[in-house]
From TrEMBL:
Domain Glycoside hydrolase family 3 C-terminal: 494-733
EC assignment: 3.2.1.21
UniProt keyword annotation of Nucleotide-binding present: no
Source organism per UniProt: Aquirufa echingensis
Keywords, ordered alphabetically: Glycosidase, Hydrolase, Signal
Protein name: beta-glucosidase
Domain Glycoside hydrolase family 3 N-terminal, residue spans: 121-455
Lineage: Bacteria, Pseudomonadati, Bacteroidota, Cytophagia, Cytophagales
Molecular function, one GO term: hydrolase activity
Entry annotated with the keyword Hydrolase: yes
Length: 747
């Protein structure tokens, strides 16, 4: 057997190298030269002595089944070590932010790019790894793929050097979105491959395409040192105003189930191994029925409601998709419940993470799911505000203290606490359980979760080799082949909604007018101010490669107006409270001011310790959108063009009321987070549109108010001047309305 010493270009001597041992009849092993790990040889094979006891333990024997290894290690762990496994870190950027939310320090100082290495571990990371035994880390932004690989190696060497040598299981939220203005070049790579949003992938109606995405993304994730994806989000988006609509696969349970299965198959691979990435499917039992579209990240949106008695259909993307994989991995490795209280669907109106019926009785017993259940982030934090994104989300259990919240989640059947770096409340919860049930019961309960958590680390090969080669990472992540595949998916995700007089495609180099787009000042979801801007909404240098460009409409052959769907509020307004109201306001899907005269007189759900009422109705109140200027821009451009074609490109994150703008456009394209170049390729005829709407487009806001939050396909849809109905499954190509096998299968 051959030893290969990999010298990695770290800025410090600590954990600067690892040893690889390649075997003809076994997995490649790797360990840090700084960790005191030795190699045990038996039967002509090599094994890592992770606990440094000089003998081959069952959990160190890679020949043994994963569950056997996990059970052996779980029995060896102390309660404190198991509590550490149950932690899932808060958001970790590489390097850490110098201030604000999720900030970190290096030897007590904020990161300085001139003097510090971005791949170093923060003070906070060293603490939670060593003192709290944390092994599950959520990675957000990274300065470069190489930095991510180097950081991973330092994390893994640190973990390998302490305790039983349990490696870190690094994870990420979806990170394959696009940079709209970036130019695509088939021969060039990037920082990571770029794909349309989940809603855009759904618009392809091609599960095989998202399975291909999963396989590409898994390779990139593993090269970055990431072994768990906090995705896919498979909530049925039956409420068109929901703020997380664009993270879903639309409102069809059948299409969502097919996409969920394909996504998990792609990430987890046909068989578990070093190329697999654990998929954490979310959000059980479905969060897409938030009352009036409000979202449960906020206290004002804590309730999912079921006026159509359609709770069970929301389970289908899980039970018929993520839990029925065609590959040998069989089921998504983990499940994340949502923040919402599924109003009056169980005996107690508490958040899904705390609900024993939903986690143990329904998920585990009825559907036989024995994978990891991880809470969503910050579900145990204190609740202090009605409209703050990072507020604690203890919906329905606000009266419990920190230890009691953790204990209730444990007893509900969850295994892990998202966004918690501190093991103390888990230890306190354990003590509560010992007092109520005895030590043997609680020890068994802790080991049960430990086995599940360890299984997900074993099955992706991290115990054998958690290390990355930064040079290989650079060559893998965003390589040209992956960029090409992602770009082709973008082209397949754009929906042609209208093409009056076959104005598209524009196959000759005509002269185009593109007006600047005003964007009003707003705030980032974390509260940071975003200043107003007035600029071209598309990469004009790219446009010049397709068309002649003019800033004089009278000289133009056609106009292209690039906008977004209407952007409203979160459904809550402090100014309304200041005026004596209850704070609840409409969420609008139209550009012009909307008065909610058709809203419910009395809300279905309500109640919060910070409120002295339960009726959350907003009937009669007015909603304004911050981008009404998008509608005005189309009107102004129409007038300036004096009858010449106006093409409208809408970046869509939610259903919208097209009645306000459709009549003023000759052609309409709906896209879902793609590069500008993909839109230009469609307009110019270099590619033909082939996508279909994964949701309905409502005829009016009155229609939206009357639909039921939990029921799909219950809206009257917009009918355009050509007589086309903007319904689920509608889309056009150059020949007209698409009627292919995809439409028949899912509609």
């Amino acid at each position: 057997m051959k030893k290969i010493l990999s010298l990695l270009a770290f800025s410090t001597a600590a954990f600067a190298q690892h040893v690889e041992i390649k075997q003809a009849k076994g997995p490649t092993l790797a360990y840090s030269t700084q960790s005191s790990v030795k190699i045990i040889k038996k039967d002509g094979l090599s094994f890592k002595d992770l606990n440094k006891n000089g003998k081959l333990d069952i959990y160190e024997d890679w020949r043994k089944p994963v569950d056997v290894r996990a059970a052996d290690l779980a029995k060896q762990l102390s309660v404190q070590e198991i509590a550490g496994l149950m932690l899932y870190s808060g958001h970790q950027a590489i390097p850490a932010r110098p201030d604000g939310y999720f900030a970190g320090t290096y030897n007590g100082k904020p990161f300085d790019p001139k003097t510090m290495d971005a791949s170093e571990l923060t003070d906070q990371q060293k603490k939670f790894l060593k003192e709290d035994n944390l092994r599950h880390i959520l990675v957000t932004t990274v300065s470069s793929p190489e930095d991510a690989a180097k950081w991973n190696n330092k994390i893994q060497a640190f973990c390998e050097s302490v305790g039983k040598g349990i490696p870190a299981n690094n994870s990420t939220d979806p990170r394959h979105g696009t940079q709209a203005r970036a130019e695509f070049n088939a021969a060039a790579g990037g920082l990571i491959s770029m794909w349309p949003s989940s809603l855009g992938m759904a618009a392809t109606f091609k599960p095989e395409l998202i399975q291909q995405f999963g396989r590409v993304a898994a390779q990139e994730y593993r090269a970055l040192g990431i072994a768990t994806a906090l995705s896919p989000q498979v909530d049925m988006a039956t409420e068109p105003r929901w703020l997380r609509f664009d993270g879903t696969f639309g409102e069809s349970s059948k299409l969502s189930a097919a996409m969920a299965e394909a996504y998990c198959n792609g990430f987890q691979n046909e068989n578990w191994g070093a190329q697999s990435v654990n998929a954490m499917v979310k959000h059980w039992p479905g969060g897409g029925a938030g009352e009036a579209g409000r979202d449960a990240h906020y206290a004002n949106g804590k309730f999912a409601v079921y006026p159509g008695n359609n709770f069970n259909e929301h389970l289908i993307p899980f039970t018929e998709g993520a839990f029925k994989l065609s590959g040998q991995t069989k089921k998504a490795a983990a499940v994340m419940p949502y923040y919402t209280i599924s109003w009056n669907q169980t005996k107690e109106n508490v958040a899904n993470n705390y609900n024993k019926y939903l986690v143990t009785d329904l998920l585990r017993k009825q559907y036989g799911y024995d994978g990891v259940v991880c809470t969503d982030w910050s579900v145990t934090g204190d609740h202090k505000a009605m409209d703050v994104f990072i507020d604690g989300k203890v919906w329905g259990v606000e009266n419990l203290n920190m230890a009691e919240r953790h204990y209730k989640i444990l007893m509900a059947g969850a295994d892990q606490f998202g966004g918690n770096n501190d093991m103390k409340p888990i230890i306190d919860a354990y003590a509560m359980g010992v007092k109520e049930h005895g030590e043997a019961f609680m020890r068994a309960r802790m080991e049960q979760s430990a086995v599940r958590l360890l299984r997900n680390i074993f099955q992706v090969g991290l115990f054998e080799n958690p290390y990355q080669n930064p040079a290989e990472t650079k060559a893998t992540v965003g390589k040209p082949e992956f960029m090409q595949t992602g770009y082709q998916a973008q082209l397949q995700s754009i929906v042609l909604l209208k093409n009056k007089g076959n104005v598209l495609p524009i196959q000759t180099k005509k002269t185009i007018y593109i007006p600047k787009r005003f964007i009003a000042a707003t705030r980032h979801f974390l509260g940071f101010p975003i200043p107003a801007s007035n600029d071209f909404p598309i990469n004009m240098e790219l446009v010049k490669k397709y068309f002649n460009v003019t800033d004089n409409p009278t000289e133009a052959d056609l106009a292209l107006v690039c906008i977004e769907n209407p952007k409203s509020s979160i459904g809550y307004d402090k100014e309304d409270v200041a005026k004596g109201g209850n704070g609840y306001v409409p969420i609008s899907l139209q550009y012009s001011d909307y008065v909610a005269n058709d809203a419910r007189e009395v809300s279905i759900a309500g109640g919060d310790p910070l409120e002295n009422f339960t009726n959350r109705s907003y009937k009669g109140k007015t909603a304004k959108t911050r981008n009404i200027t998008d509608m005005e821009l189309i009107e102004e451009t129409r007038q300036k063009m004096q009858g010449k074609p106006v093409i409208v490109s809408v970046n869509v994150s939610n259903p919208m009321v097209f009645a306000e703008i459709e009549g003023k456009a000759d052609a309409i394209l709906a896209s879902f987070g793609v590069q500008d170049q993909a839109i230009l390729d469609i307009i110019s005829g270099k590619a033909e549109p082939q996508a279909l709407l994964p949701m309905q487009m409502p005829a009016s806001m009155q229609v939206v108010e009357k639909q039921k939050e939990d029921v799909p396909f219950d809206m009257e849809c917009h009918v355009d001047a050509e007589g086309h109905r903007y319904d689920f499954g509608f889309g056009m190509n150059w020949k007209g309305v698409i009627q292919d096998a995809r439409v028949q299968k899912y509609k």
